[in-house]
């Protein structure tokens, strides 16, 4: 499923295309998508396909098409402090993006059938926290993944504000999913070839809205011999953060706010211009066609005006390239990290404030 938008050359290019096609419609969803490079969740040797609007599967590892994830993120209507449950959490790509929006006082849980995929998701999460500069630009709710069949969740489990199921739900499992949702909560899941948004409006009332026609593999039902009890899935507990953890969150928040205020005062721009699309436009600029034999060949018209135009384009391109270079240098500087390292604190405390980041 996918292919609704043009292929991108990198993650920012992919997000630009999703915005243009109206799959990404809000700023907070755009920021989350730009912060997490989809290519980082691909195996080595397959990354060239990461920025196409197509699903990808290798063994048990699976990623839905970017347009699907975009619609899911928009339909969930995420806010800071909400609790989120991802049924069929896979690589953790979606859960990590959700964590950037719901923030450190939210709840972020995932259930995945395959143990090897849970291990893969934990590796990718650890890599994001330790190596991605995007991590320092957000307050993050770290996902917690458990192995198990999401159709066997313990009946005494707590309910969630937001739920997403990443596999096709049969009609007879619809109510099972709804029970996991708090009143006022939103459940997004594929059911009967439709990505559906379900809002729980009361103890036994729901409102449904079809979002997008989709094709998902169905949920896997646990096979067992007659009389054998299923393996019950116990969701992670909702715990209160420690005083140390709260201190880290508020110190980082204060430093981040100071850095943002400073950059706004200086008029610093963090957004990189869309240079690829500009180049494509220049390639399409053709003035005339001529016949050579029986073929129609495009050819530029030679004129003083054209030469002047070429010089203008060259000057503009050189100026834009200089601007782009300056912005990219600014992006490479992790201001929050520099501020923490400059604090008069023991090195062990600095490492804690930095989440023991490796760069």
Description:
With 359 residues, the protein is of the alpha/beta class. Among the domains are: 66-238, Rossmann fold (3-Layer(aba) Sandwich), CATH 3.40.50; 240-259 and 338-358, no CATH class. It has eleven helices and eleven strands. A hairpin with a 2-residue loop joins β1 and β2. The two termini are 37 Å apart. Pfam families: PCMT. Belongs to the methyltransferase superfamily. L-isoaspartyl/D-aspartyl protein methyltransferase family. It is found in: Cytoplasm; Membrane.
CATH superfamily heading of the domain at 66-238 = Vaccinia Virus protein VP39
Content-based structural category: alpha/beta
| Total of DSSP H or I helical runs spanning 4+ residues | 11
Q: Enumerate the spans where pLDDT stays under 50 for 5 or more consecutive residues.
A: 269-309, 322-331
What is the CA-based Rg, rounded? Answer: 24 Å
Task: Please trace the helix and strand order, writing H or E for each element.
Answer: HHEEHEHEHEEHEEEHHEEHHH
Q: What is the fold-level CATH name, i.e. the topology of the domain at 66-238? A: Rossmann fold
**What overall geometry do the principal axes of the alpha carbons give?**
globular
């Amino acid at each position: 499923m996918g292919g609704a938008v043009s292929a991108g050359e990198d993650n920012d290019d992919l997000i630009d295309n999703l915005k243009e096609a109206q799959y990404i419609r809000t700023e907070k969803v755009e920021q989350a998508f730009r912060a997490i490079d989809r290519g980082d969740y691909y195996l080595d040797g397959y990354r060239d396909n990461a920025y196409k609007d197509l699903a990808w599967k290798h063994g048990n590892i699976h990623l839905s098409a970017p347009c699907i994830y975009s619609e899911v993120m928009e339909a969930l209507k995420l806010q800071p402090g909400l609790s989120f449950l991802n049924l069929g959490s896979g690589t953790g790509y979606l859960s990590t993006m959700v964590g950037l929006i719901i923030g450190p006082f939210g709840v972020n849980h995932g259930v995945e059938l395959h143990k090897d995929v849970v291990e893969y998701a934990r590796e990718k999460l650890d890599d994001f926290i330790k190596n991605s500069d995007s991590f320092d630009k957000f307050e993050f709710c770290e996902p917690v993944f458990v192995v198990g069949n999401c159709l066997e969740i313990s009946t005494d489990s707590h309910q969630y504000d937001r739920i997403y199921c990443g596999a096709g739900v049969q009609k007879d499992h619809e109510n099972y999913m709804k029970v996991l949702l708090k009143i006022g909560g939103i459940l997004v899941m594929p059911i009967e070839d439709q990505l559906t948004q379900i809002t729980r409006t009361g103890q036994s009332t729901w409102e449904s809205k079809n979002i997008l026609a989709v094709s998902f593999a169905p949920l896997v039902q646990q096979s067992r011999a007659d009389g054998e009890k299923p393996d019950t899935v116990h969701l992670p507990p909702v715990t209160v953060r420690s005083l140390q953890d709260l201190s880290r969150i508020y110190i980082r928040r204060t430093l981040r706010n100071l850095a943002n205020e400073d950059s706004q005062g200086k008029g610093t721009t963090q957004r990189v211009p869309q240079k690829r699309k500009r180049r494509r436009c220049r390639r399409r600029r053709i003035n005339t066609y001529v016949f050579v034999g029986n073929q129609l060949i495009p050819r530029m018209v030679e004129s003083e005006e054209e030469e002047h135009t070429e010089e203008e384009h060259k000057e503009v391109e050189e100026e834009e390239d200089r601007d782009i270079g300056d912005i990219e240098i600014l992006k490479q500087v992790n201001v929050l990290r520099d501020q923490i390292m400059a604090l008069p604190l023991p090195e062990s405390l600095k490492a804690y404030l930095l989440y023991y980041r490796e760069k």
